[in-house]
Amino acid sequence: MFSRLRLDIQCILDRDPAARTAWEVLTCYPGLHAVVLHRRAHWCWTHGFKWLGRFISHLTRGLTGIEIHPGAKIGERVFFDHAMGVVVGETAEIGDGCTIYQGVTLGGTALYKGAKRHPTLGKNVVVGAGAQVLGGFTVGDGARIGSNAVVVKPVPAGATAVGNPARVIQAEQDIKREQAASQMGFSAYGVTQNDDPLSLALRGLIDNASTQDHQICMLWQAIEKLAGPQPPNGRNCVPEDAARLETFQAEKLNQLVGK
Predict the structure, then answer these.
(1) Distance in angstroms (rounded) separating the CA atoms of residues 151 and 162
(2) Which of 106, 167, 199, 226 lies at a C-alpha separation of 20 to 30 Å from 26?
(3) 3-state SS class at 54
(4) pLDDT of 112-132, one tens digit each?
């Protein structure tokens, strides 16, 4: 029991820069209190003391602001950071090393008793503040759920889900970003740069439009050279308003979409 508690305290010291000492974590972190009390409630639930398990869960909610059904399964080194308003349903499963922030709901969409109604989080999953993960599907190991995302479909291992409804982004391929993530250990709040697929799509369109602007400019310059000097009548075959210079400001537009 004490070795498990030491692991819980150490995982908080590792992930929260505001945590200074083990004593501070033990006495002042409601996320730790919720996990410890949930283990007692879960033991009662699985050994036939259903009412007692629910009562412990009810007291835990009042003390910590975190509501975890006694039937839920929680692994080792799970960190509820701040975590006020977190709700974890009866058939939810949280894998080892997960980090869950405030306002998260691991909820269900089915009303059938005995069915797997709530999500299963793999190992080392990060669920950002305010995210809603709804349904009896699996979120793969190392996945990240962005803040305020609404996830209703499975998330592959190592992927990121952002938005409402959530859009899934596969694991990063940028080497520099992977190195930075490994140094951090995990991505706080489940959000990193270049996560939003809409922003990525807009950036791609902007870059493409910038290339087209450059090509059009080169075409007009070539036409001007082919046209040569103005004819005797004074008319130039190249229109006065032709785009001879690049005017597309890709840099400013990319800044607007968060590049």
Answers:
(1) 8
(2) 106
(3) helix
(4) 777 889 999 999 999 999 999
Closest CA to 128 of 157, 148, 142, 143: 148
- Domain range for residue 251? 198-256
Buried b (16+ CB within 10 A) or exposed e, 7-16: ebbebbeebb
**Do 225 and 147 share a structural domain?**
no
The model scores a pTM over 0.70: no
Q: In this structure, are 162 and 207 located in the same domain?
A: no
Domain boundary among 193, 210, 232: 193
Angle at alpha carbon of residue 34, lines to 28 and 40, rounded to 5°: 125
Residue type, 131: A
Domain stops at, among 143, 159, 193: 193
Q: Are residues 53 and 104 in the same domain?
A: yes
Run of H or E including 64: helix 50-64
- The side-by-side arrangement of strands in the sheet containing 79-80 is 79-80, 99-100, 126-127, 144-145, 160-162, 167-169
Q: Are residues 187 and 219 in the same domain?
A: no
What is residue 146's DSSP assignment? Answer: -
